[in-house]
Design brief:
four-stranded mixed beta sheet; globular; binds pyridoxal-5'-phosphate
């Protein structure tokens, strides 16, 4: 542990505030540190490892494809890429029927902005307060947190209009002649697991239709079954024009994807957009295995069901502990807002000591985004430990 820490501090960019932990192995719901201590994982690499760690279907897909063909250029047809697109078309919301593959969430969203601007020939994008869309120049520009943006103003495009989340009137006021698209996370992730009112997404769809503006749903975090449906916008029956995916799409293998209605995607012509690694055989074979396994195990439905149980158990803690402000979320994207940051940070550290990985976002929101294979017994163990921890910190 000490050696890795020294190497990291000496040679790795200090962009991350690291917890004192080196994870070296994983299996199902568990990860193991370099000293051999095991942890129940409610972070899942931040909503990435939805099949759990080292799922045999993924390990097999990766090793089989790695022996066959790892990479070729997009100058040629790529078999697993075409097959992945066809598979995806069956699980995404209706209307989304063409796909561009890349390597991360931010890249998918950069592509979404380029496509919206090219398709509409307009220049501005409406985005939400509390949003998170990534760290590249355009996506950090669409991200609410000013500390992420301010040092880099010089390279951030000045095309974003911020409006409060869950406020349709504000979106209507912000719509202008140059508005190309509205981007929204159906449930805000980094912003603190914020679930909008039931009329919000349908209202956005209607406003976009009225103004001939594209609706981009950023489902990088909420997608792939996380909230109890394949994609969160389905909870409100909303069909976006563009859909961005990444995180759980590769189950731990880096891959991102922009989906769009064919009519919109066809505004991209050869040469308009590209990525060397995007859609490479290894990444696509892995994502194919993710979708097939999720379908076989009915993981979206499972997330819906076990999420109800998890939320109920968290609600019990709300009633018991004064420092818990609110429990919210959908499926297996759940959060518990704590009255202050010190208590929230202490809870994360204390849980870690006791063998549980949980995450804190938006200063004081404990976020639970476990693999979708999580079982009741794992949830019960976490609740027991959280109950003890909250009792102690409140003393
Ligand atoms: C994580 C995330 C991103 C950024 O994805 P990266 O792969 O880190 O670039 C974008 N949007 C949302 C909603 C996210 O949760």
């Amino acid at each position: 542990m000490q050696r890795i820490r020294e190497l990291d501090e000496r040679y790795v960019a200090s962009t991350y505030r690291r917890q004192p932990l080196t994870l070296v192995k994983g299996q199902g719901m568990f990860v193991e540190d370099i000293q051999g201590k095991r942890y129940l994982d409610f972070v899942g690499g931040i909503a990435v490892c939805s099949l759990g760690h080292c799922h045999p279907a993924l390990t097999k897909a990766i090793s089989t494809q790695a022996k066959k063909l790892m990479h070729v250029s997009n100058l040629y047809y790529i078999q697993p890429q075409a097959e992945l697109a066809a598979l995806l078309s069956r699980v995404v919301p209706k209307g989304i029927d063409k796909f561009f593959f890349c390597n991360s969430g931010a890249e998918a969203i950069e592509g979404a902005f380029k496509l919206a601007i090219k398709h509409t020939r307009r220049q501005r994008i409406i985005t939400m307060r509390g949003s998170f869309h990534g760290r590249t120049a355009a996506t950090v520009g669409a991200t609410w947190k000013s500390s992420y943006r301010e040092p880099f103003e010089a390279i951030i495009p000045k095309i974003f209009d911020f409006v409060p989340f869950d406020d349709l009137a504000a979106v209507e006021r912000a719509m202008g002649e140059q508005t190309a698209a509205v981007i929204v996370e159906p449930i805000q992730g980094e912003g603190g697991v914020n679930v909008p009112s039931n009329d919000y997404l349908p209202g956005l769809r209607k406003l976009c239709d009225e103004h001939n503006v594209l609706l981009i749903c950023d489902e990088v975090q909420t997608g792939m079954g996380r909230t109890g449906k394949w994609f969160a916008c389905e909870h409100w029956g909303v069909e976006p024009d563009e859909l961005t995916m990444a995180k759980a799409l590769g189950g731990g293998f880096p891959i991102g994807c922009l989906g769009a209605r064919a009519e919109v995607m066809n505004s991209f012509s050869p040469g308009d957009h590209a990525s060397t690694f995007g859609g490479n055989p290894l990444a696509c074979a892995t994502a194919k295995a993710v979708i097939k396994t999720m379908t076989r195990l009915k993981l979206p439905q499972r997330a819906a069901k076990i999420g109800v149980y998890f939320k109920k158990r968290l609600d019990e803690l709300t009633d018991k502990h004064g420092c818990v402000r609110e429990v919210r979320g959908l499926g297996l994207m759940l959060a518990m807002e704590i009255s202050n940051k010190q208590i929230a940070d202490a809870a994360v550290a204390e849980a870690r000591d006791r063998g549980f990985l949980i995450n804190c976002t938006a200063d004081k929101v404990l976020r639970f985004i476990p693999p979708l294979i999580v079982e009741r017994k794992h949830i019960d163990r976490l609740i027991g430990v959280l109950d003890e921890i909250l009792t102690e910190v409140e003393k």
